[in-house]
Amino acid sequence: MTAALARRMWHQLEPLHACLYFSPQANEEAAALGYDLSSRWPSYFAWRAAPLGAAGPELVTATFFGFAPRMVAEHVPAVWRTASPEAVLDARLRAVDRTFRALFPERTASPEMAEAAELAREAAEHAVTAARPLAAANRDLGWPDEPHLALWQAATVLREHRGDGHLVALLAADLDPCESLVSFAAVDAAPEANFASRGWSPVEWSAARARLVERGWLDASGKATARGREGRDAVERHTDALATAPWRALGPARSERLAELVLPLVGAVFQAGMLPTQGTLGIGRIQVAYA
Q1: I want to staple 117 with a disulfide (CB 3.0 to 4.6 A). Which of 151, 239, 255, 268 is the partner?
Q2: pTM, full prediction
Q3: For the segment 114-149, what is each residue's pLDDT rounded down to a tens digit?
Q4: For residue 94, what pLDDT is reported?
Q5: CA 228, CA 205: separation in Å to the nearest integer?
Q6: Residue 256: how many CA atoms within 13 Å on its side-chain side?
Q7: What is the pLDDT of residue 281?
Q8: For residue 87, which of 58, 56, 53 has the smallest C-alpha distance?
Q9: Cβ-based neighbour number of residue 189 at 10 Å
Q10: Cα–Cα distance for residue pair 182/167, rounded to 1 Å
């Protein structure tokens, strides 16, 4: 039950976090910092990596997992020459503040928002951050005073906590970063073009596919076999299991209350149409991408 609850709460909170990467207000803040918006990746790497400090390409590649190393190196550490991590973090909160006020202006200062922030923060404070660098780095930032920003910060800690655990599950399944994408694409029958932005070359993609064929995860045409589908399902179950601690601490009733409180906020995000409708890797299979 707790694993199912962990997955449900991820579905409820992930869209709130993901606004940062797609909202026009965030794009305006990124442009003000000096980031080139002809590609979404400079600001994405800056927004997400800033809690780690002036991280280099090895650290970002390791913690983000699904990107080809040379693709990361195109943007990191260059993003810190455009703006310092401290400046990025300040702009990040401004972006979230402006985005939330635009999406749900009547709810930003409501009692329901304050209650949701309190519950989400409590869950995030019970997230075990051992060997979870992105979750730990975001929790190290502390808590904003405004409830809507505290809610976003808690959602971010919780999604990175799940994401760090998802990488554990992928590695436990003996999937390297490119194989993770290839197997994900095969199970969900997603076009390979959806994954091109991760920077893997056709040769690397084909080699990863060949390795998965040899393991019996894919057939000769590149479609997922029963073994491959079960393997990916096992990754999802492992991810859910590793994400349960915050929700065990909050308990089913209070977790359900949090889900109830954020439902209209998530509805407003989807109604705005700012999020993509197909995921690529993320922190498990979901129809909303964060990267």
Answers
A1: 151
A2: 0.94
A3: 999 999 999 999 999 999 999 999 999 999 999 999
A4: 98
A5: 17
A6: 5
A7: 44
A8: 53
A9: 8
A10: 15
The three state secondary structure string of the chain is CHHHHHHHHHHHHHHHHHHHHCCHHHHHHHHHHCCCCCCCHHHHHHHHHHHHCCCCHHHHHHHHCCCCHHHHHCCCCHHHHHCCHHHHHHHHHHHHHHHHHHHCCCCCCCHHHHHHHHHHHHHHHCCCCCCCHHHHHHHCCCCCCCHHHHHHHHHHHHHHHHHHHHHHHHHHCCCCHHHHHHHHHHHHCCCHHHHHHHCCCHHHHHHHHHHHHHHCCECCCCCECHHHHHHHHHHHHHHHHHCCHHHHHHCHHHHHHHHHHHHHHHHHHHHHCCCCCCCCCCCCCCCCCCC
CA angle, residues 252, 291, 288, in degrees to nearest 5: 50
- Written as six digits, the tokens of 30 are 């990124």
CA distances from 118 to 92, 103, 236 (A): 21, 20, 28
Cβ atoms 184, 281 nearer than 8 A:
yes
pLDDT(152) > 60? yes
Mean pLDDT of 270-286: 67
The pLDDT mean for the chain works out to 94
Percent of the chain with pLDDT over 90: 90
Structure tokens at 164: 């760090």
pLDDT at 269 over 80: yes
Tokens of residue 33, six digits: 């910092």
